[in-house]
Design goal:
By secondary structure, the chain is mostly helical. The strands form 4 sheets. The protein has a two-stranded parallel sheet with strand order 1-2. A two-stranded antiparallel ribbon has the order 3-6. Helix 13 crosses helix 14. The chain is globular.
Amino acid sequence: MSDSYLPRWRKVSATAGTVVAPDERLPWPQTAAMGVQHVIAMFGATVLAPILMGFNPNIAILMSGIGTLLFFFITGGRVPSYLGSSFAFIGVVIAASGYSGTGPNANLGVALGGIIVCGAVYALIGVLVALTNERRTRTAPVKGLEGLEVDEVEQDVAVHWIERLMPPVVTGAVVAVIGLNLASVPIKNMAPTGFDTWMQAVTFLSVGLIAVYARGMVQRLLILMGLIVASLVYAVLTNGMGLGKPIDLGALAAAPWFGLPTFSKPVFEVNAILLIAPVAIILVAENLGHLKAVGAMTGRDLNPLLGRAFIGDGVATMVSGAAGGTGVTTYAENIGVMAATKIYSTAMFVVAALIALVLGFSPKFGALVQAIPLPVMGGVSIVVFGLIAVAGAKIWVDNKVDFSQNKNLIVAAITLILGTGDFTLKFGQFALGGIGTATFGAILLYALLSRSRA
């Protein structure tokens, strides 16, 4: 990296197999094309999350672009990441706002207040990490970019205490709970008729077939492609054969191509804040994992940037909530694209963010998203929530969590049931339930059971 705060990207050729480092870039036409690809990669999840919470998808896309630019500047342009809508907020936002699952969220304001406080907590954790990030080094050759040997840096103090607080058994259980806690939303609220239930099945079957049998970018965009296929089937059966509620494209035709999105005002209520703020712990664990993955792929030691990465994500979440958007997080989808292309330039994420800004100011884009049939969204939700639950189990597998140890077994077992069963603790008129009790319960239970026996 250059000594300047922001990178001065070195231009490299676009020959096949070229590894492009974070402080390098392809020629601008190729960089722009890669930016478009990263927009496509983040698109499905960034749009789906706000719809499931009753948020405006235009605002979510707009704030994902603004959040990515904020993250870029706060990290000094040294961490290649895209920030999109976080699914960790879905369960707590639905609980805090009482959202029914269809249409705009009538209590959006209270959710936004909780999201802003969550972002503030997250940013404060980042400040603490940055202040305690003292380094101890040792030399051990490891493979970096293009197979070159680089010096490995011993784990930072800040990383060490975070991982002691949230070891893989805890983070895996909490991530799994997010998906399991949401299971009833698509099944109970997004299929009002028998036909809709069948369409949900058609949708998740379409996604499954694409995931297994498609190749290339079609397979990588399995959620988006499955949604398109299922929507076409739905249109044939309803608009063509009259079997269900037809798709109405009137709003899409009437919507202008460009216009100012409708922003929402946050409302700060203690109950909603207590439910939503603990998501900061989940975001910390998520961002830590993503930063490690990017560091391993690039051969760069990103631990010194961990605090800044948390601050960037936290500030982006606060700004998003203040405008009416969802909380944001670094996206594994875009990390997957980098792994496949071996292109890690931060320049392409600036391009992707600017494209998202343009989409955010297009009411026609928002009307297109709103035209997606409810059961199709329900079928996609079943897949996404299931994948989140399985991602928690994958954390256990990847980190070789030993469930022959009673400590790990008890922490995971209790956490899963607390979150899935929506276990609620009341403190006077305040209530902490579901994902909140599961998150704090996992951390406290692990700490208690890890104490040395006399």
